[in-house]
From TrEMBL:
Gene name tied to this protein: ribA
Enzyme Commission (EC) number: 3.5.4.25
Name assigned to this protein: GTP cyclohydrolase-2
Database matches in Pfam families: GTP_cyclohydro2
Keyword set, alphabetical order: GTP-binding, Hydrolase, Metal-binding, Nucleotide-binding, Riboflavin biosynthesis, Zinc
NCBIfam families on file: PRK00393.1 (NF001591), ribA (TIGR00505)
Length: 354
């Protein structure tokens, strides 16, 4: 048996193994999570077709197949369903967050998930897939293996350093004197961008905005949220003030990824609010880390800021990372006929200061 014994849970080699596992999951292949109780074979049901499921069964051998979902939790941990006889379409239907919870609860077929199911579910989150995993215990060889320690250490390792890659002048309609500096995460993932208006490094306390990517709001002008207005409003305020830094973080959907955000939207269309929708999918309300934002400010030599935000988490995260927030500058815009309840939920359930 190819028993993988990690020396360090974090570092380039461990990160490489995690990344290979993420890519494998996304194309429907099975990966092995080396856990305390032995190897656990895992695949993402949303990426499995019938052929993939057959291959999974062959790798799993004679043991049973379990389906775990981060949303199916009891106070004792994740729960799972015995799914040995089911087809790929049936598995997918079971993890459909819009219908499964209720049905499963009624049938009361949920049992305690195999040990270390959480690590497999975390791997799905890192792959920006739905946190649901088909699981089996396996003794067979598999080219993609990661340990639970490597999975746990991965996000922190990625966030702990950024590489400053390039700087270019990019005149913007709202701020002609603008530059973009790109910062690449340590795992070679998508770059975070700092948009510098004027010369913020020359100001004692420049305006700063931490903005998480929102494809729908920023680019398409979606009216479901306030992101587009916040983005453009921040650039205009910085232009007006003569300088500022807008950190554009590659953290779509508060860190759950665009596809999962669209899943959350579809749950919101059935009555959930933005927090409940995240939770029904098995995510926390907010899955972001502001470590990259603090690291970018430090790299840019900006240690004291006036932060454009309504989000208390951003204030706390910057302070904890050693960036002094001398002032919170409120950053709200009128509602538009589609985002009233989104804005109300931010105030009522996320503690946003309006
Ligand atoms: N999961 C999820 N993400 C959403 C939803 N609506 C918007 N987002 C994402 O939320 C993020 C926007 O967050 P920010 O602009 O940083 O706003 P904020 O956390 O409200 O904080 P401030 O605007 O600074 O007060 C973007 O990544 C959006 O894609 C939603 O309904 N569900
Ligand atoms: Zn948005």
């Amino acid at each position: 048996m190819d028993q993988h014994i990690p020396t360090q849970p974090s570092g380039p080699e461990a990160a490489h193994r995690v990344q290979q596992a993420l890519a494998a999951l996304r194309r429907g292949a099975a990966v092995v999570v080396d856990a305390a109780d032995g190897p656990l074979l895992a695949a993402a049901p949303e990426c499995l077709d019938e052929a993939g499921l057959r291959a999974f069964r062959a790798q799993a051998g004679r043991g049973g197949l379990w389906l775990a979902c981060a949303a199916w939790r009891s106070p004792d941990g994740p729960r799972a369903l015995e799914v040995s006889g089911l087809g790929a379409g049936e598995l997918l239907a079971l993890v459909d967050p819009a219908r499964s919870l209720e049905e499963l609860a009624r049938a009361q077929r949920l049992a305690a998930a195999p040990t270390d199911a959480d690590a497999a579910l975390e791997l799905c989150k890192l792959a920006h897939l739905m946190p649901a995993a088909l699981l089996a215990s396996s003794q067979l060889d598999c080219p993609w293996r990661v340990s639970t320690g490597e999975i746990a250490a991965y996000a922190g390792w990625v966030d702990s350093a950024l590489i400053r890659v390039v700087e270019a002048r990019v005149p913007l309609a709202l701020a002609e004197d603008a530059r973009i500096v790109a910062f690449r995460p340590r795992d070679g993932g998508r770059e975070h961008l700092a948009i510098l208006v004027g010369r913020p490094e020359d100001q004692a306390e420049p305006l700063v905005r931490i903005h998480s990517e929102c494809f729908t709001g920023d680019l398409l002008g979606s009216l479901r949220c306030d992101c587009g207005e916040q983005l453009r409003g921040a650039l205009a305020a910085m232009n007006e003030a003569g300088a500022g830094v807008l950190l554009y973080l590659a953290q779509e959907g508060r860190g759950i990824g665009l596809v999962n955000k669209l899943r959350a939207y579809s749950l919101q269309d059935r009555g959930a609010d933005t927090l409940e929708a995240n939770e029904a999918l098995g995510f926390a309300g907010d899955e972001r880390s502001y470590q990259p934002a603090a690291a970018m400010l430090q790299a840019l030599g900006v240690g004291r800021v006036r932060l454009l935000t309504n989000n208390p988490d951003k204030l706390a995260a910057l302070a904890a990372a050693g960036v002094e927030v001398v002032e919170r500058v409120p950053h709200s815009f009128p509602s538009n006929g589609h985002n009233e309840s989104y804005l109300a939920t931010k105030a009522e359930r996320f503690g946003h200061l309006f």
